[in-house]
Amino acid sequence: MANKKSARARWKRVSAAGLLTLIILFELTAFALLAFRESTPDVNAFILGGILVVLLLFQYLTLTSIFRHLDRYILIIANLLVAIGLIVQYRIDPEIAFRQVTWFAVGMVAMYVCILLMRRPNFFRKLTLVIMIACAGVMMALFVLGSEKYGATNWIIIGDNSLQPSELVKAGTVFILAHWLANAKRLRGIWPLLLYVVAVVGMLVLQRDLGAAVLIALTALIVFYVATGNKGLTVLGLGAGCAGAVAGYFMFDHVRVRVAIWKNPWATYTGSGYQIAQGLMAIASGGVFGMGLTRGSPKLIPAYHTDYIFAVICEEFGIIFGVAVIALYLALIVRGALVALNAPDRYTMLIAFGCTVLITLQSFIIIAGVIKLIPLTGITMPFVSYGGSSLLSSMILLGILEGVAIAGGETLEKSLREIEV
Amino acid sequence: MSMRRNIKTMLVIFAAMFVVLSVYLLYTVNAYGTRWFSNPYNTRLENQKNNIIAGDIKDRDGTTLAGTNTAGDRTYIDDSSMRKATAHAVGDNYGQTFGAENFFSKYLLGFDQSLLERFSRMVSEKPSYGSDVYLTINAELCDYIYAQMGDYKGAVVVMNYKTGEVYAKVSKPAFDPKYVAEYLSGKRALAGGAMVNRVTSGRYTPGSVFKIVTAVAALRYIPYVESRTFQCGGPLAFDRQTGKYLPAITIDEDEQTKAGISGEYRVLRDYNGDYHGEIDFVTAFNKSCNHVFAVLAMEIGADRLARVAKELGVGDEFLFADIVTASSSYEKPNSDVDLAWSGIGQYTDIMTPLHMCMIVAGIANEGVMMEPELLWDVRTTSGVSTYTRRSAIYKKALSVTEAAKLKAMMLSAVKNGTGRNAAIAGYDVGGKTGTAEVSSGAIKPNAWFVGFVDDHTHPIAICVVLEQGGSGGGNAAPVAGKALKKAIDLGVAK
């Protein structure tokens, strides 16, 4: 028994180390390619590649040595996704890649803080009301302070930096959901939660941030279903959401435009359909194996480094790599769900699952939008897209997940020891 | 704990979502990729033209139809009539049409070359070449057909019904690929609609060639239809308001013209007022009897007729690998009168010539419709083939028995019926004529002929449409006969 367990633990370490080596090789070759794309070698590419590898190893070594129960795979996959994003960003514009790697470092600190804070989950639980007021307050403040960017009034611009607070509201919402739904028996008591969700989604719709609105509404619904198992109310909520979407279609011009360009982007190529059409051409140009790194024309696509980065990945690395990226997200999601399943209590279980749902829906909505499976709504690709707030929020979700994973592992170990004793 | 179970359920749903995402990505690039890529809006193509010397476009015999000269400009074959005859298959260099120049630009501009080739190209800094594209067409046959069409506008397509290879794809009026820049700048005038490839984008009213579809439906849904006799005694009358069929009303031609009785009813007549008296199903097909097929359409019913049309590919979004093709359409009619007209290819029925050719090819090929192919081979400048041609079945639309029956009917329509002018000495030709009314006014009807050669060594199907060509049997059938004869003489299928 003990032998078997240690063999498993060893396999875990070896397989994770193998993965790590492969990823480091991938990062280094990609940056080497980027360094030699011009006739004079580009030292900055090596520097950035080096920084990435150091950050990855630092995270891995510090975290695994402190926390035995850390979920290595989640950490590695998230790092790989960040690296893919940085490679593409560096290839497009080295300057934004350096800005992004700074945000990655900031996000890393946030992740450590979250892991540490999750050692005392009740700390967050006590703060629920504060989080709730803060989230709702930020959303309201956007009406006054917000500036319009890419058609949505959801940016706060401070000097040269622009922040998208709705990214952080997503993570906050997970805590709020988990708090109210952890005691699912008293459904009557959750009206503050309902009020909060309706208010936030409503405000997001008014700010034309449809992607975030859909994301938060669906996340709330899915977490509600998982916590209560109440199919009737879930279907009712889904119906209300659909009715809202249909109403939105008839009420707002920009929603109708989104649907029209989804049906046929080519009809309005010079206008609203331009982005989708350019994305599709980029994906088709890449074909199965891609044009090769630095051989594509990513700058033709609007939002090439943020929402549309998936099209750029497909153009240069091929759809085979696109499918691999989709598979990476799926692996991340499966690990996330496993963390939730092993969580020590209902509250942390819902938190871990909520984070997983956010990552799932966000990556699905944007990839499906880019490949024209569903109408496009502008949201970022978790970990991959350029954007400080987006990466920060993804790293926070990662930290929370790891925190729950550690807590779950420790609880399991404790109960096993009690049985043995 | 039920929460764990719910999480597992959701995880299964999430996994399914991501599988759908991957499968859709692969599917959509496979189905639409070439269309997106060769889109004239794709500036990558324009940029690549500066980096690479585009490959040649040749016909199946190796005749060079388009190439690049030493100055890097695109050149086209010297023979101006051949240039026009193949214009729609070859296309233009300015993204105005969906010919080979555009649709196969992936090969011509070297986008298909492997990473290694591209890398060595980059390093060597020698001028690099795109691949040569060989089309399935025979330029001589195209040229001959173009001449045979005379002054008519229209479309002719010739294909192999066993493999789907397209031997000729002629659309008139044609542009001259040599002068596209001048057309665009307005220096040179271009006939209206000359950039439209009528073979693939011409959405024509089919008229009597649609009786093939109605005949399939009749064989499938009306028991013993072949042993029945019908009375073709004159025009059919329908109620003016409701469009209901009024079998008791007979309209006398004289009476009608004298007293203007036709104003009371809506009337469906036969072409030139020919009535056939007592007639059976096969003869009705041979003589293209409107009366009988209108009655059959009403017996079959709108749902079944629409279903058969759909099974034959009407309404399909044709996503052929080599050819961009508009879809045909059949709107389900709501009244007897519309149903009757739709059964003889009028009402709002629309067919593209290529699709009509595919249906006939399917009949000749034991019910199996092949996907039309235009790409014959791709070779690098050193002559190495990098493309494997693979004939693909589009769909199995008819049973072997149904196909055999239709085939016999079409053979007899050329032997004893309206298609006589398409006959060739020494070969069995089958076919169906069509004379499609496009307007009640002074415009002459469009002439159609669809048919095939029943021969193992020359498995050739054809579709001819001549705009305002008058009678299908009189004008389209002879063009088809000559084109088939020429194709056999050239031995295109060998």
Describe what you observe in this structure.
- The complex is a heterodimer of chains A (421) and B (494).
- Chain A is mainly alpha-helical.
- Chain A contains 16 helices and three strands.
- Chain A has helices spanning 2-35, 43-66, 72-92, 94-117, 121-126, 128-145, 166-182, 191-206, 210-228, 231-251, 253-263, 274-286, 309-317, 319-341, 346-370, 388-420, and strands at 147-149, 152-158, 161-163.
- The mean pLDDT of chain A is 88.
- By secondary structure, chain B is α+β, with helices and mostly antiparallel strands.
- Chain B has a domain at 205-307 and 334-342.
- In chain B, the strands form six sheets. Chain B has a five-stranded mixed β-sheet with strand order 4-3-2-6-14, with no helix packed on it. Chain B has a five-stranded antiparallel β-sheet with strand order 8-7-18-17-16, sandwiched between helices. Chain B has a two-stranded parallel ribbon with strand order 1-5.
- The longest helix of chain B has 36 residues, at 2-37.
- Chain B is globular.
- Chain B starts with a helix and ends with a helix.
- The model of chain B has no long low-confidence stretch (mean pLDDT 88).
- The A-B interface holds A 222, 225-227, 229, 266, 269, 277, 280-281, 283-285, 287-289, 291-292, 295, 297, 300, 314, 319, 322-323, 326-327, 329-330, 333-334, 337, 340-341, 346, 349-350, 353, 357, 360, 364, 367-368, 371-373 and B 2-4, 6-8, 10-11, 14-15, 17-18, 20-22, 24-26, 28-29, 32-37, 39, 41-44, 47, 111, 115, 118-119.
